[in-house]
Design goal:
Helix content is 37%, strand content 17%. By secondary structure, the protein is an alpha/beta fold. The protein has a five-stranded parallel β-sheet. Strand 2, helix 5 and strand 3 form a beta-alpha-beta unit. The longest helix is centred in the first third of the chain and has 14 residues. 30% of the residues are buried.
Length: 168
């Protein structure tokens, strides 16, 4: 379990050089976008929840995406692409019910103290029949690290990633 405040501070510190090291994150985002792209239309209201430096808006080449991130410095970096950016938590989205046609969240769930609350919020803000596109790590992610730490103690040094059968 991660502290929301710690995630906010750590990602804010990393914002300046994040893109230089985020190769996996971009690869996963591109794969997510490739799957979602057939369902996107030009005038859709889109939310990027956990936008980081704003890579989704850059890949979509759109200036009308609402970007949200918990880390203030990530928000400032994402704002450079010209889209509206909101500093906030995914577990309490500051948007009306059924506000967006499509909601994206790539590699964010593992940082949430309450994954179910984050997923419920995505569901709440998307319109009926809208698109929710999410990528996350699975239960086998970092299993080598988890096993290595288990030799020393029983503390959870690695995030308990959600399972494929998690309901929301």
């Amino acid at each position: 379990m991660f502290s929301r405040e710690r995630v906010k501070v750590d990602f804010s510190k990393a914002a300046g050089n994040y893109d230089a090291h985020a190769l996996l994150q971009r690869r996963v985002l591109r794969a997510l976008l490739e799957r979602a792209n057939p369902f996107l239309a030009p005038r859709m209201a889109v939310l990027d929840a956990g936008c980081g430096t704003g890579q989704l808006a850059k890949l979509l080449e759109r200036r009308d995406i609402i970007q949200l991130d918990i880390a203030p410095a990530m928000c400032r970096k994402a704002q450079e692409n010209g889209n509206n950016t909101v500093n906030g938590a995914m577990e309490s989205l500051p948007f009306a019910d059924a506000h967006f046609d499509a909601v994206f969240s790539s590699l964010v769930l593992q940082w949430l103290p309450d994954v179910q609350a984050g997923l419920q919020e995505l569901k709440r803000v998307v319109k009926l029949g809208g698109l929710i596109a999410v990528s996350t790590f699975g239960t086998s992610t970092l299993h080598e690290l988890r096993h290595s730490f288990a030799v020393y103690d029983d503390a959870p040094h690695v995030s308990p990633f959600i399972t494929a059968d998690s309901s929301w």
